[in-house]
Amino acid sequence: MSQFVTTNEIKAAADYIRERTKYRPSVGLILGSGLNSLADTIDTPDIIPTGEIPNWPVSTVPGHVGRLVIGELEGQSVLVLQGRTHFYEGYSMDRVTLPIRVMVALGIQTIIVTNASGGLNPAFQPGDLMIIRDHLNFPGMAGNNPLRGPNDESIGPRFPDMTAPYDPALRALAHKVGDEAGIQLREGVYAYVAGPSFETPAELRFLQFAGGDAVGMSTAPEVVVARHAGVRVLGISTVANLALPDPPPGLTLNHEEVLEMGQRAVPHLITVVRGVLRRLDETL
Ligand code: HPA
What we know:
By secondary structure, the chain is of the alpha/beta class. The chain has one domain (7-242, 252-283): Nucleoside phosphorylase domain (Rossmann fold, 3-Layer(aba) Sandwich), CATH 3.40.50.1580. Helix content is 30%, strand content 24%. The protein contains nine helices and nine strands. The chain has helices spanning 7-20, 93-96, 98-105, 138-141, 168-181, 201-209, 220-228, 255-263, 266-278; strands spanning 27-31, 43-49, 67-73, 76-82, 110-119, 129-137, 185-192, 214-216, 232-242. A five-stranded mixed β-barrel has the order 5-8-7-6-9, surrounded by four helices. The structure holds hypoxanthine.
């Protein structure tokens, strides 16, 4: 393996997927921790375990099953990634974001990313959904940007614009769908940290001060790579827990609780994602 993911590695993965499915997806969907059930509603899917795809970074985290589910959902041809990979698992940033490169190679033009996060905004409650308006890519700002390394000009520019990383029309549609379904949607800034340790109180205070509304360990690198290639992005975060610098005494955090609390938001998340897919044409 060379130091950076190569065009050939991306092509091999995309070719493999194309051969394994009759569908030609135009929308990619990445499901975060505990959010897998959305893919279970896809009719007659083609399912590919990610471990069988050449060069794919295989997820090692409980709650991340690791497969592609490809099929039709609300009139759209979708490719759903159940079980993303994280930087903290030991993969490099460009390997973590290979699935986005492969989606681009498959012709996908819109990506919906979901995740579980901790709520930094004191108004947020566990179970809330937050439409991501912007992100803070702390590892990226400190040198671990997924675009570090050779740039393929045929995909995107060396210095890609990031003024509107999360598509305004898709965000507006998500809010419309939420309003019409009676679902309260938050909107805010997702602070990306590498993890895997949860944040100290001082770190949480810093993230709040920097403008973060929710904190999590995924998504931002994927979005940078998608935007580099000109793909439109909708980001939705499920607030699984409070991530406040001064929690009530005795409150600690573990992964099982995060998964369990995240479940509360799942029915709402499914309603919003399905509604957005159904009305995607309104944003084109
Ligand atoms: N911090 C970081 N990542 C997370 C959290 C958190 O509190 N909850 C879910 N993912």
